[in-house]
Structure prediction request, 122 residues.
Amino acid sequence: MANSFKSDDSFLRKLAVGAAGTNATMVLLKAIGFNPIELERGSTGFKIWKKIKIKRVRVPDILCLNTGLRFESRGKTKLEVSMSHSLKDPKRAWDAGMRDDDFVSIVVFEQDSAQLFKPTGD
Prediction:
């Protein structure tokens, strides 16, 4: 069986971009009047919660306390609409575990010379 794991560097980069995407989404939601909190533990940081996070189960990252709306955020380094999914396994569909009224936020980042990720356009 082939090893399909990401390298440590690639995994950390994706973790950093994902956390930055969730944090940027929360800032934007606050700016337009929402009251967001982290719904999926660890989605705004770099700690890996081995006992909490369940692989291949999608829980939206953010919940608005005022409206009950849930937001799945995606930090991206390329402008593309993509989420982990499988065409062969319906349990791994891109929207598995999400409700019809959940939102998906996509924030595009570029890496600067200090190796920090910043939202594109800032």
User: Anything to note?
Assistant: The chain has a mean pLDDT of 78. Residues 109 and 121 are 9 Å apart (CA to CA).
